[in-house]
Structure formats: structure tokens, C-alpha cells
Amino acid sequence: MKLALGYQTFWEAAHKNYPDQLRPNGLLDQGGMFDVINNVVNADHSDRFAKPSERLWRWSINPWIADTRFTKVGALGKTYRGLILLKTPFDLALYPRLIWELQPRTILELGSYQGGSGLWFADNMSVLCENPGEVHSFDLHTKCVHETARKHPLLTFHQVDLSNVSNFDENLLMSLPHPWLVIDDAHVQIFPMFSYLNNLLVSGDYYVIEDDPARVNRGIIDGFQLIEDSGFLIDTYYTDAFGTNVTCAPNAWLRKS
């Protein structure tokens, strides 16, 4: 497991060179650190991936209000390189972890806004991927995208009306290498969009649906049955990293089997 490499190396080096410091209150005993190491090293255990129908929709805390305790703007006031970045602090920690683990060759972002998140994804890909690919961001209102984001060599913006999947350039999509990481932050026809892109996804690709699953209405529940029937599992390593569903995509960090 790519995520565990650093933890495993530390564990082996500590045992070999500083066994006395592994005891309680030793310099290498960081208050439960070894439980954390064990959790990460064994993160591929069988219950990491779950069927949507087996998961509850509760969450430990609402991530969108978690950082409003000391500010009135919270996640809505976040910026990256001067551009608006509408992500919770939890998801800002989770995505780099997934990018490192997955090593995506293509990131598809549905919903561009000002281009801040696309820029952030492209920068993360350029740093974390051994063979950086491309980020493609799709939105109808691309005149709002800032020039700073447009200049990134790994990032391309496409003006597309996402209310109808037939507006996609399917030849473009079919040419893009896998693994894919798809982030739906457009909130437009999310399940028709999923059904369309699912036909292009391969085993191991990830699909993250932001915000909409938090509504937990009949449409969401029925849509997630479609997701389950399509062979996707919830990666609880991401949904539950900071507590149950402490993410803007509750039950919606999805991996194709």
C-alpha cells in the first residue's frame, strides 16, 4: 500500500535502532502514535471498502460548519494562491492523500468556479504524482475562471453545459489515461452524470461526489443504490479519516471495483 510506505519504514527503523524509545513516554511514543501506524499500515484490511447500502448517513460533525466556530466565513473564505477554494479543511487534507495513493493520470473536475480548486489539484498532481498527468475542469461559466489558473501547464478548462451529458466531448474523455479521479462539485444532474462517466471508468478509478449526498433525500438514496449496483464501494479510509463522514462528500469517496 503506497500510503503505508513511510509508516512501515519508520516502524522498522525505530524497532531496529531505538527500541527503548518505543516504550510508553519514550521520545518516539507520540501519544498513541503506534496505534495510528498500525491503522495506516493495515489500511487495506477487508472492511475499508463498504457498500452504500450498508452505511448509515450520520456524521460525527458537519465539516462545513466545523471551522465557523472562530470565524463567520469558514470554508467559504478559503483561498489558494489568491483564488477562491471552496473546500473544507478536512477535504483539503484528504485529497492529497488520495492523489498520492492513487497516482491519477487524469483528474476530472465538474464545476470550475474561479479555478482555485482546479489550480490546487494541478499543483498537487505536479508534486505528488511520479508521472503527473492532466487536470480537466468543466463548467458553463468559464468567464469566471481566473487567468492565474488558466496558465497552469497541467490544467485545462472546458466550457460545457453539465445539465446534459451529451455536451461532453466523448473523444476527449476516451483519450484520457487512467487512473481517473473524478470530482463532481457541479451539483447538476449528479446521477445521470455518474451513469455517463461510469461507462468510461475502469477498475480502481475514484469518483467523489461533493455536498449533494448530505441532503440524504429519496433521490440520493436511490442514486446510491445505482452506484452500488454499478460496482462502486465507499472507501471508508477517506470518509471516516476524521470521524464518521467528516467530509463534504459523506459516503461518497467511491472506488470502482
From TrEMBL:
Pfam families: RMNT_CmcI. Transmembrane segments: none annotated. GO terms for biological process: lipid biosynthetic process. One of its GO terms (molecular function) is methyltransferase activity. Signal peptide: none annotated. Gene3D superfamilies: Vaccinia Virus protein VP39 (3.40.50.150). This is Cephalosporin hydroxylase. The lineage of its organism: Bacteria, Pseudomonadati, Pseudomonadota, Alphaproteobacteria, Hyphomicrobiales.
